[in-house]
C-alpha cells in the first residue's frame, strides 16, 4: 500500500520493529550497522534474537564498511508500483557485504554505459525516503561522483 506524503508518492515503507530499529537508526545516522555476535563475532542480517551460527543470545550493533559485491541482480523493466515509475528501468540486487551478510537492495547512479554483473564491487549509498526512513542502497564502486 502506498503512502502519500504531500504530493510525493512513497513506496511501501519498512515495518520498523524493536528488533530492526537499530538497523534503520544507523542508516539515519549515516553509518550502516549490523548485529554482531558477541560470542563468535559473526555479523548477521536480517536482525534476529539468536545468532544463526552459534545460537548465542549476546550481540551488539557494529558499523560495517558499506563495501560489497553484487551476488545476484535483476533489472525491473515493468512497473509494479506507481512510486517506482520514475526509476524504470531499475536494478534490484542482492549485495554481499565484505562482512558476509547479504542485503536485498537497489542499485542507484547507473547510466546506460554501466555494466551490472555478479561479482562487481559496490558501495553503500544512503538515500533518505522520509523523515523516518533512510534506505541503504548501493552504487557501483569505482565510479566518479
Ligand atoms: Zn554467534
What can be said about this structure in brief?
The protein is mainly beta.
List keywords for this structure.
145 residues, mainly beta, OB fold (Dihydrolipoamide Acetyltransferase, E2P), 2 domains, five-stranded antiparallel β-sheet, three-stranded antiparallel β-sheet, 1 helix, 39% strand, globular, binds zinc ion
What top-tier CATH class of the largest domain fits best? Answer: Mainly Beta
- Cα end-to-end separation: 34 Å
Largest sheet: 5 strands, antiparallel
Strand residue percentage: 35-45%
Cofactors and ligands: zinc ion
Count of domain modules: 2
Helix and strand sequence:
EEHEEEEEEEE
The low-confidence runs, each spanning 5 or more residues with pLDDT under 50, are: none
What is the tally of helical segments? 1
Can you name the CATH architecture of the largest domain?
Beta Barrel
Number of strands: 10
Shape annotation: globular
Helix content: under 10%
